Amino acid sequence: MRVTRDIVYRSAVSSEAGVRTQGDLFLPPKATGSPVLLIHGGGWNALSKESLEPIALWLAERGRAVFSTNYRLLNDGPWPACRDDCVAAGQFMLRGGLARNGLPRPERILVAGASAGGHLAMTAGLRLPAERVEAIVTLAGPSIMHFPGGSSGGLDSQRFFRTFFGQRTPISREQFAAASPVNLVRRGAPPLYCIHSRNDQLVPPLHSEHAAAAWRNAGSRAYVHFFNGPGDSHGLWDSDDRALRQPIAAVQQAMADILADLARHNIHSPEKVA
């Protein structure tokens, strides 16, 4: 496998945000299937592409090329800067921007992310041309920004959202709605696959249920895989040591099931739910 690091995908803002508009390409010896745009989490204001490297390697070992990206954090620019960077990374892939690094211009891409990256996978994936997105995969991704009943992760905190939206005044219902994937789905949207721990109190599993319902209501396929993860956070990893950790067996199985389902459907256009 060949790994090329720190590829600039959006030079127009690279001087402003530095490494936040770069990505790492994981290229297997014989890439098969649509390449993956992989988006890290961290509450929209922390972590980096390296935090999802175990998932990037897992996908690449199964034949998928992966472009794992950074994006501007909230301290670099409020919403929708992070989403716009993820859209730009997808557009970069789709127009053949990685050809010089060994990945030819693809017909379609798979957009995936974890936690805040799952939210960005949904919001960015829905802004890319639907016919060029094989599917969207979210691991514990928030789908409703002002979540009913609150969240221990702070998604009911006005203070957080003033940082998120970059304003001091109270946030309007319309702003919450415009940043919530459940309100953005339209007919013809790419299929959605959700992976979520039933024990997650950081992003409650109802987020994935609401997302799947919204996709199905729009006539697109949606799949939800729940598992009993360790702890009361996302439960994705088998270790707290970022240098050693791997996705737990249940998460690996869920991802394998998704790849198998995509291969079975050989999706050329989003299918309606029966």
Distance between the termini: 40 Å
Order of helices and strands: EHEEHEHEHEHHEHEH
Q: Percent range for helical residues?
A: 25-40%
Q: CATH homologous superfamily?
A: Alpha/Beta hydrolase fold, catalytic domain
How do the strands and helices of this protein lay out in sequence?
Elements: E1 2-8, H1 14-17, E2 22-27, E3 36-39, H2 53-61, E4 66-69, H3 81-94, E5 109-114, H4 116-125, E6 133-139, H5 158-165, H6 173-178, E7 192-197, H7 206-217, E8 222-227, H8 249-265
Parallel strand pairs: 3-4, 3-5, 5-6, 6-7, 7-8
Antiparallel strand pairs: 1-2, 2-4
List keywords for this structure.
alpha/beta; 8 helices; 274 residues; 17% strand; disordered C terminus; eight-stranded mixed beta sheet; 8 strands; Rossmann fold; 29% helix
Folded structure, characterized:
The structure is a single chain. With 274 residues, this protein is an alpha/beta fold. The protein has one domain (2-265): Rossmann fold (3-Layer(aba) Sandwich). The chain is 29% helix and 17% strand. It is built from 8 helices and 8 strands. It has helices spanning 14-17, 53-61, 81-94, 116-125, 158-165, 173-178, 206-217, 249-265; strands at 2-8, 22-27, 36-39, 66-69, 109-114, 133-139, 192-197, 222-227. An 8-stranded mixed beta sheet has the order 1-2-4-3-5-6-7-8, sandwiched between helices. The longest helix is centred in the last third of the chain and has 17 residues, at 249-265. The radius of gyration is 17 Å and the shape is globular. It starts with a strand and ends in a 9-residue tail after the last helix. Mean pLDDT is 91; it is low at 267-274.
